[in-house]
Amino acid sequence: MKCAPIQNWQGKQDRSESERTEARISRSTMPSLVYLSLGSNVGDRETQLRNAVARLGTTGRVAAVSSFYETEPVEFTQQPWFLNCAVVLETSQTPRQLMTSILRIEQEMGRRRVQKKGPRMIDIDLLLFDGAVVSSPEITIPHPALHERRFVLEPLAEIAPEVRHPVLHKTILALRDALPLGPVVRKLSKAGR
């Protein structure tokens, strides 16, 4: 069964609505639940992931970390396999502040954006932010390719199976189960071990 594409939902939200969403989040006294995808295929992949998770602790409280999954590269396939995981983060940062923090963590860990979809020491993608929908030149939430990527959905379904995509209105588990067979994603170990 093929996953239906999102019908240009990113373009339907004007900038002022994204700004209102940011303002609402920044006024909230409760931390937001954020879902992230982490990947590495350069160097000691497991150490890179563990280091990134630890650094994410500076942006909020890491509430859950999935098992690690070894995944076949997609799109640009002539590169080493990735190690991926998903993280649930409780944060008081706004989406824009968190994205700035994520980019800083990637840079501090040696990430250089040389080749699109190419090898990387660390890649941290912001997938979902407390049910918010944000579309601006700097950030798009939910991640526009979330529903198409098994290497993201497998680890995310492990720790957040019932969380709903705010645009597609399907659970992470349902999105994962709707994917056609594709690149290999195999569970290796619990993140905490």
Structure description:
- It contains five helices and eight strands, in the order H-E-H-E-E-E-H-E-E-E-H-H-E.
- It has helices at 15-27, 45-56, 95-108, 150-159, 172-177; strands spanning 32-40, 61-65, 68-71, 82-91, 123-129, 134-135, 140-141, 185-189.
- It has one domain (13-188): 7,8-Dihydro-6-hydroxymethylpterin-pyrophosphokinase HPPK (Alpha-Beta Plaits).
- The strands form two sheets. Strands 1, 2, 3, 4, 5 and 8 form a six-stranded antiparallel beta sheet that branches. It has a two-stranded antiparallel ribbon with strand order 6-7.
- The longest helix has 14 residues, at 95-108.
- The termini are far apart.
- Mean pLDDT is 86; it is low at 1-13.
Describe the SSE topology.
Elements: H1 15-27, E1 32-40, H2 45-56, E2 61-65, E3 68-71, E4 82-91, H3 95-108, E5 123-129, E6 134-135, E7 140-141, H4 150-159, H5 172-177, E8 185-189
Antiparallel strand pairs: 1-4, 1-5, 2-4, 3-4, 3-8, 6-7
Offer a concise description of the structure.
It contains five helices and eight strands; from the N terminus they run αβαβββαβββααβ.
Write out key terms for the chains shown:
single chain; 193 residues; alpha+beta; Alpha-Beta Plaits; six-stranded antiparallel β-sheet; two-stranded antiparallel sheet; 8 strands; disordered N terminus
Task: Quickly count the domains.
Answer: 1
SSE ordering: HEHEEEHEEEHHE
- The CATH homologous superfamily is called 7,8-Dihydro-6-hydroxymethylpterin-pyrophosphokinase HPPK
Q: Structural class, judged by helices and strands?
A: alpha+beta
The biggest sheet, with number of strands, parallel, antiparallel or mixed sense and barrel status, is: 6 strands, antiparallel
Gyration radius, to the nearest Å?
16 Å
Terminal CA distance reads 35 Å
Total count of helical runs of at least 4 residues: 5
Beta content: 15-25%
The first-level CATH class is given as Alpha Beta
